[in-house]
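pinning this so it doesn't scroll away 📌
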Amino acid sequence: MPPTNHHGPAVGLATLAVAACLALSGCGSSPQPSGASAAPETGYAVDSNTLVFGVVPDSVSTETNYTPLMDYIAQKTGKSVNYHESTDYAALIEAAIAGKIDVASFSGFTYITATNQGASLIPVGSIVTKQGAEPGYYSQAIVPVDSPIQSLDGFKGKKVCFVDPSSTSGYLFPSYSLQELGINPETDITPVFAGKHDISVTKTGEGRECEAGFAEDSEVVKSTAVRVVSETQVPGAPIVVSGSLPQNMQDLLRDTLQEVTIDQIVAAGVSSANSEGFRSVFYATRPVDDAYYDIIRDICAKTGAKQCQA
């Protein structure tokens, strides 16, 4: 989710894009991922009465955060919407490749990874949390509040918490930031994969299993046990639609999800949306497309991340 508060020195998307492009042979337009076109056979993950909604398992409250949006999709489509529980990022990617997901909220890196491996996914929108905001959030480098570490340079030689090898803000962008400082994220630190952003924050705050770490800002801001030493802006997480669905359902989901506000969802009769909890994580969606995630492809090329490979 996008941030409500920023801390520390921020690195903008434009800066990252330029840096990544300079490391490549050129900055021409990126090819469409193999999964961006419609699959040869159209169909639903379960049946024509059901939509399966998948979510990157970012925190223990993931399902609760998305329930109002699922209720809204059910109302607009007339379908039952089933939540797909994924144990980790890899499981969600595998489900998408196998055609077991109809609509989902991915991370940018997870979307690139899944489509590179053959999943048929179409990005339609991205969530923002406040009026006037654009899609995007922050990957934050954190340390225990009483740590002597004052900058990202101090992570060298330390036990460092990442979220998941397929996490945008919890691994790909942190790896890029470390490499830019000459720190190899595999050999110059001891990587620890926490599995979820909130767990990465907790383990880092405890200072035992992890002496430093990374997580998205929406989870970092909840903790008083850590402080931010650096942050990097990340492209907004995409809401994706399966290209295997019938075209009329793809179109309906795009119209439903690419640009809607919380007030519109509440006005449509979705009472679960009218809560302090949902309003803290959702204000509206804004349209995004495949080209919006080219910066992730650039950083994949810069870092050589295995997850980027087809």
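📌 and the second one:
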Amino acid sequence: MTDGTKILIVDDENEIREMMCNWFRQRGYQVGEASNGKSALELLREDTFNVAFVDLRMPGMDGLEVLAGIKEIDPSVYVIIMTGHASIESAITSIKKGAYDYLVKPFSLEQAETIVKTIVRYQELEAENIMLRQQLEDRYSFIQIVGKSPQMKEVLEIVDNIADTNVTVLIQGASGTGKEVIAHLIHSKSNRRTKPFVAANCAAIPRELLESELFGHEKGAFTGAFYTKKGRFEVANEGTLFLDEVGAMSLDAQIHFLRVLQEREFRRVGGTSLIKIDVRIIAASNKNLEDEVKKGTFREDLFYRLNVIPLNLPNLKERKEDIPLLIEFFLKKYGTESGRGKKELAPETAELMQEYDWPGNVRELENIVERLVILSKGELITPDRLPGTIKKSSKSYYYVFTPDKNLSEIEKQYILAVLQHNNWNISKSAKVLAVERMTLYNKMKRYRIKRAKSVV
């Protein structure tokens, strides 16, 4: 498999140049040739090459000058210096100036082809390494699905039922609800679990580059395309492709995407060969795609292609019973990762966080817990460490104890805070304070605590 690799042979000896050109052409490579450095650089300005074999000693420009010119025109070209006058000094100089390798004449044509195959394999490994790094970075996500609410139990039940199939899934929910975490979970439970999981955020990729990112491109397909690149579909072959914020796709890109879903094949940008793929698609959107279809910004036929199995993730404020579990999980996680050790919330802190609506959902909760763990010096996290948005939005009472007040002042202010929180209901307040009603009345009398009269 030559994979479209293009080779340039630069040598002033006609016999060597023709022999190398014929060898590589017979093996399916695209080959260009030049008898001197000036002609070689002119070719590079007009066409694109992956590999260049350059003779060191040539009339006019020598091989090192040609090497410098090639790197200036297209730094991605792999240059192999050839010479019949080998020396350690010339080899070291060539490598320092950017040559990939160094061949001493006479060399076998098999040896030259081995170098080309190594370069092609290296480029493939680069794409695979990107995918593997992404998998390693995201692997922790599998254990972040925490919850006992009916809504999350229903989502997880559907995941268990459809994970080991090839059915397309559409996950909808607000930002921060865990759409990518659920996509990871589906992949980890599927028969594709040993194959790649590749993610692409359609909203984060510039529209003019989206098709290149998804489908790849051939070298020279557009300005800046210095080498052939595999797209996310190709890298995810036999695995799972997660397309986040799919609603951000342009209508033109949606047409191309729909065709790939239907035909299971595509062409790289600037390419002519059809590439067949076997990829499971999991799409996600923080927009309601049915509404987008009505607005005319999302294709109806694509929506139905994606919406085979719909999963709707609830906002965190709709599953309040999961908040304490999530807090406990993130306290342990970041306490361990940061080396801060065990941390826990003061009751007042926990109540404030329970009552907050969490517009940023689980992601916001995680970020705030991480901040609390880092900023709190002691084991107990008190309310004064919370962001002002949480304290202002909550109706809870809390009191920060400071060492500059005596015990009577602290007790007076704490009783007043409890009474205000319970709308001056004596029975409820006494229960919270764990005292009898009469005891509370006596303390109110002692501290001269009275409910202020309303002013109309």
